[in-house]
Amino acid sequence: MFEALTAQPADKILSLMAAYRDDPRDDKIDLGVGVYKNALGETPVMRAVKAAEQMLWETETTKSYTGLAGDVGYHNAMRELVLGTAAAPDQVAAAATPGGTGAIRQALELIKMASPSATVWLSAPTWPNHPSIIRYLGMPMAEYRYFDATTRGVDFGGMLTDLDAAKPGDVVLLHGCCHNPTGANLTASQWQEVAYLLKAKQLIPFVDIAYQGFGDGLDADAFGPRHLAKTQPEMLIAASCSKNFGIYRERAGVLMAVSQDPSKTALTQGTLAHLNRQNYSFPPDHGARLVTLVLGDDALRADWLEELDGIRTGMLALRQNLADALRKRTNSDRFDFLAQHRGMFSRLGATEAQVAQMRENHGVYMVSDSRMNIAGLNAQSVPVLADAIVAAGV
Ligand code: PLP
Ligand code: TYF
């Protein structure tokens, strides 16, 4: 049987990690995989998470199964974190999932079950796992324009024009904040315009939010999903705790299905539990429980917020430093977009050949589409990167 398997394409982000590891140069710079790193290049366990782990170790009395959809305390904590008061508890069905990716997968399976002919619209470009999973599930898929290669901002006119061609019942996947891979994001008023179009065309928003707190702050980053929850009849949200709690390997995510009509919630909740059962029975609990402890304890929550804000403002400072360094070297403002982008990533707009040149000549590792992880920089590497960018003729 196994001989019938065919080799699958590698994940270009993850293969870059291996190439970086194998590079013997000690001045190499890793701007590849989307993992937060401090100025020392470490991805530490957050203080509040460490404290919650100790609390859990001391107080946890059983590791028996949770519910099929995970723990209700976690659903509530995540609903409040992502949606605030934009949706009442009885409007939201929720299930814990293995990471944000698990939530995306379960959301797509729900869409396929409920509306097999719905096309899922993706931003061009998007996180490569979106089209990969959709293709694997055999679902119809289309792209809407999103990134403007000239301004390195959002091609908002193109986005609205393309979404206008979607048919009623189609699903539109939107990055909640901190767009991966471009770093270019919708403004609050653009979210309002998108919401207006979605409602008028009867399109269903599906928000993937994996970086809440990494852009302009926890509440500002959730403007989009909250506005949609208030204005749309139905929506799906896949939220990840990997980045903002720094618990990548614990695999904590949540899928939320929001409906203006609370009478639909029980059926949707049952479906989410069913989908978990089909795929892995019970979802992982450890990371979810840490998140619940941190969010539910005033002192831990305050400490988490402080550390998260330090991460966020540190990345903003690196963005500004890089934009300034490039202003100086090029005598122009054409890299100012780096300071306007938000989140971990910016798409630089370099060609594949320029990306390869920066890797070979300067040991700078970015994804071949010229996505850079800003958190991979520090005070020493910013000028090195700026030199590399100029030398490559970007
Ligand atoms: N969605 C986007 C856009 C991402 O970049 C990520 C990356 O980590 C995820 C979802 C999900 O991450 P995880 O499955 O590690 O929680
Ligand atoms: O985009 C990134 O770098 C992160 C991490 O298959 C990641 O989202 C990358 C690839 C992948 C899973 C996670």
UniProtKB/TrEMBL annotation:
The keyword Transferase applies. Residues 27-389 form the Aminotransferase class I/classII large domain. Its cofactor is pyridoxal 5'-phosphate. Keywords: Aminotransferase, Pyridoxal phosphate, Transferase. It holds the Pfam family Aminotran_1_2. One of its GO terms (biological process) is L-phenylalanine biosynthetic process from chorismate via phenylpyruvate. This is Aminotransferase. GO terms for molecular function: identical protein binding; L-aspartate:2-oxoglutarate aminotransferase activity; L-tyrosine-2-oxoglutarate transaminase activity; pyridoxal phosphate binding. It comes from Litoreibacter albidus. Transmembrane segments: none annotated. Belongs to the class-I pyridoxal-phosphate-dependent aminotransferase family. Its EC number is 2.6.1.-. It comes from the Bacteria. NCBIfam families: PRK09257.1. Homodimer. One of its GO terms (cellular component) is cytosol. It is an enzyme of class 2 (transferase).
